[in-house]
Amino acid sequence: MADQTMDSGKPTLAVQPPAAAKKDTHKRRPFDEKKFEAKKKKIAQRLRAEEELEQFRQETGGTIGGEWVNQKWVAKQVGNASKKAAGFDFTLWLKDTALYFAFLTAFTLSVFAGRGTQQIVSYENVWRRTVMTHLDTATNHEGVLQFFDDIVGELSAQDNTDFPLDNYTFRAQYGTAFGSALVGAIRLRQVRVQSTECSPVHTKLVVSGLAKGYECFPAWSDGTEETVYSKENGTVYDWNSTIFDYQTADDTQQVAIQGYFGLYPGSGYVADMTLQDAPDIIAFMRDSHWIDFKTRAVVLEYMFYSANLDVFGDTRVMFEFLPSGAVHPNVLVAVISLNRYPNDGVWSLVRIAMIVFVYLTVVFYILDDMDHCRIVGMAKYRTLGWAHMDLINNLLFVLSGLFRLANFIMVGLAFPDTATDSDVRQKIRSVGDALYMEDQINGLNGFLLWMKLFKYVGVTARIIRLANTITYSLRDVITYMALFAIISYAFAILGYLLFGSELATYQTMTDSLVTIFRAMYGDVDFLEVLDKAGTVGFIYLFCWLVVSVTVLLNMIIAILADVYSKVVADEKDNPPSALVGRIADEATKRWLEVFGHGAKVEFAEGG
Q1: Cα-Cα-Cα-Cα dihedral sign, residues 371, 377, 381, 385
Q2: pLDDT at residue 62 tops 50
Q3: How far is CA 98 from the centre of its chain?
Q4: CATH for 468-577?
């Protein structure tokens, strides 16, 4: 019991002293504001360095070697350190380069190799030579009919009665020539114009007794086609022959054909012939004057098939008959190979495998670009560079693949059981046009792919210097080209108006532009100009050559020289980081790590 004390007679309890508090054994560091600020600053510097590195990678991603800046590298300094010490991922570069080389090799071999171009060109020359040999006689109506006679005569002379037609030709045996079978008939198709009233000047000449007749035959244009065969003054005869019956484009299964003086429809008056009956039909045309002053175009077309080469030789000769009475010929000879992937053993399988590999690689590149854009956005497309060439390549490959698929389907549908010979011939031409377009796309793709080799190999400071010169001068060059185009067009108009009626090289605006461009590079005949255009023509050409060669061409040289000097001066303060230098630095670093003292070596700047 607690002790009690008496104070003034009142008891009081004694108070025990409190127990001593438990001693805190945890040591608390005093808050160091300086260290906290330093650490915060270090984190901020690190984040800023990462942002600068990403910005630098995006800026160089479209330039030479910029694809392989190591994305995992983190700069330890700020400011320009990110750019100077940006890491180069040698392994990534090696993988990308090896894949691209395999891709480029497969594309080149699959598209351009093994196509037998020399054989195809030789076969085309056979048919072209056949036409060109007799073309000089076709200068008027009678000359054109004589040309038809000569062509049929030469083809008939090549007709071999012992030739195995059953192995070559289609349902009808139309004939053979040069070891090839005629596909369908030889066709002549005429396009005619309606007669119109003559001009007021002609009317006055008639009244004054200096001219006769009130009917004229205009140049070809839309809406002037004659659909009922008639002679002068609208006279219609009963010829009792189908060659005077009008047929629409649906009936003829023909498409419009572009001539030098107009676009002519697929309709008209048609004469289909075999090699055997062609001479009689042409003789009837001559007697009945099938071609007259209403005729504006006559198209001769025939197609042969060579089983030995497995190709079709398509020949089309169009004669344009002008109101002046002149005749202008146009010759088109094409060789069409429908079987692009022949089953000729192991090589055929290898080629198909390469095509599959090419398009699988394209899919990989497209997905990789999409993933890149998903992560960092469209930053790499903001600056003109390799990224845009990659995009164009991918789009062209997609377009080429669609053409391949469409052409494969069209080849399968080109020979239906119920089709006529004319249908088959037109389908073959349509497939040939589509295959030609596919070849154009592949050719452009091949050019871009080979140009992209500079992105992967052989990149030095000199190449970067030239590339920068072209890039930095682009705006000035575009401005210069606009100025050049205006001046060139002005001179072309002047030449067309001055000499269009005297010189064939200036008879249209297109001809005039081509002529002055050829003259700019020295391809000009001053004697012809002096002979036909006199002193005015000489002065015109002299002024054009002074302006174009002495002034304009030297101006573009001055622009490029000025930009090149600025690029060279800038390299002294900011040396280019060439891909070759980066590879050499990376190889040296790996060598020292393996064979040196074991310490890792960091290079501040490559190349």
Answers
A1: negative
A2: no
A3: 27
A4: 1.10.287
**Helical segments of 113-230, H only:** 117-132, 141-157, 200-207
**Predicted pLDDT of residue 103:** 93
pLDDT of residue 240: 83
Residues near 121 by beta carbon (within 8 Å), at least 6 away in sequence: 335
* β-pair partners for 272: 187
Query: 547 is written with which tokens?
Result: 């302006």
Q: Report yes or no: 97 and 457 within 8 Å, Cβ to Cβ.
A: yes
Instruction: Please give the pLDDT value at position 163.
Output: 45
Distance CA 104, CA 102 (A): 6
> How is residue 143 written in tokens?
């000359």
Q: How far apart are CA 519 and CA 531, in angstroms?
A: 17
Most confident of 138-147, 231-240, 337-346: 138-147
Q: Tens digit of pLDDT for each residue in 16-42?
A: 555 555 555 555 666 677 777 777 777
Q: How many alpha carbons fall within 13 Å on the CB side of residue 519?
A: 28
Task: Give the position of tokens 């532009």.
Answer: 513
Instruction: Tell me the domain boundaries of the chain.
Output: 92-114+343-454, 136-336, 468-577
Q: What b/e readout covers 448-482, taking b as 16+ CB neighbours within 10 angstroms?
A: ebeeeebbbeebebebbbebbbebbbeebeeebee
Residue 396 has pLDDT above 60, yes or no: yes
Burial class (CB in 10 A: 0-12, 13-18, 19+), 9: exposed
Complete DSSP assignment for 299-368: EEEEEEEETTTTEEEEEEEEEEE-TTS-EEEEEEEEEE---SS---SHHHHHHHHHHHHHHHHHHHHHHH
Residue 239 in 3-state DSSP? Answer: coil
Closest residue by Cα to residue 69 from 84, 77, 470? 84
Q: Residue 344 — φ and ψ, nearest 5°?
A: -115, 35
Distance CA 452, CA 454 (A): 5
- Alpha-carbon distance of 335 to 516, in angstroms, equals 34
Most confidently predicted of 46-55, 80-89, 530-539: 530-539
Identity at 426, one-letter amino acid code: Q
**232 CB-side CA count, 13 A:** 7
- Beta carbons within 10 angstroms of residue 120's beta carbon: 17
Query: Using CA atoms, how far apart are residues 332 and 52, in angstroms rounded to an integer?
Result: 60
Tell me the backbone φ, ψ of residue 454, rounded to 5 degrees.
Answer: -65, -20
pLDDT digits (tens, 9 = 90+) for 514-535: 999 999 888 888 888 888 888 8
